[in-house]
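Is this the right way to post structure tokens for a design question? Let me know if I should format differently. Anyway, here goes:
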């Protein structure tokens, strides 16, 4: 950080930048600088596949952000989604990289949300991340998105590059976004809080660990005075 601040201090960059003129014509971009500036440009280029894949193991899973886990005998389990998805629901992608070898692996990881999706939670459309995996280490990456409309959308999977060559990737995946799920987990808090009867909600709260629940999901029900009193009791 000290080195970066020193470099910025001697570049004569203004504290308040002037209004630059930018134009975009197809794939041509033009910038007319009105004051000193620093320009950083990055682009994604096609890379050849390495003759031998890296030994890094890649796992890619998707989950619903508001219903990520299930609990059995007080033990937490991941709850992945691999069939149908809903519009206007936030989903997350979990990327797990594992280095089973005794040597360090330095990788460039390319992440991308599905076609037709929008990023959320300070997310991105496409991002490259440098990962330094120690011997026998595991690293997890996550990002979040949602679909504004139904349809079938392809997803370019997480890809790994080393020395400018592709050395690994997860399997491609297609998202089937439907207006209503054909199979609904009616026992989950995400469903009961929004669709269950007041009796269903109270019965769930009687047996659930309240510290694990987002109780804000039933805030809209509190306009019912009787339900409010029963819940708070």
């Amino acid at each position: 950080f000290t080195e970066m601040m020193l470099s910025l201090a001697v570049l004569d960059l203004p504290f308040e930048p002037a209004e630059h003129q930018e134009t975009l014509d197809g794939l041509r971009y033009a910038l007319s600088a009105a004051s000193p500036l620093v320009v950083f440009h990055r682009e994604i280029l096609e890379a050849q596949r390495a003759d031998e894949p890296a030994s890094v193991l890649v796992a890619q899973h998707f989950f619903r952000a508001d219903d990520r886990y299930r609990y059995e005998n007080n033990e937490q389990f991941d709850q992945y989604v691999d069939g149908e998805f809903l519009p206007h629901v936030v989903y997350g992608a979990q990327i797990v990289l594992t280095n089973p070898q005794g040597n360090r692996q330095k990788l460039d990881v390319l992440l991308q949300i599905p076609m037709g999706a929008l990023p959320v939670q300070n997310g991105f459309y496409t991002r490259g991340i440098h990962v330094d995996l120690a011997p026998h280490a595991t690293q997890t990456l996550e990002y979040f998105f949602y679909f504004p409309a139904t349809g079938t959308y392809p997803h370019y999977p997480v890809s790994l590059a080393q020395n400018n060559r592709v050395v690994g990737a997860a399997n491609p995946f297609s998202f089937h976004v439907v207006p209503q799920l054909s199979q609904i987990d009616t026992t989950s808090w995400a469903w009961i809080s929004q669709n269950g009867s007041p009796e269903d909600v109270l019965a769930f709260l009687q047996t659930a660990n309240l510290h694990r629940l987002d109780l804000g999901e039933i805030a809209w029900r509190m306009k019912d005075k009787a339900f409010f009193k029963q819940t708070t009791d």
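Format looks fine. Someone answered above. Worth noting: Residues 13 and 36 are 6 Å apart (CA to CA). The mean pLDDT is 90.
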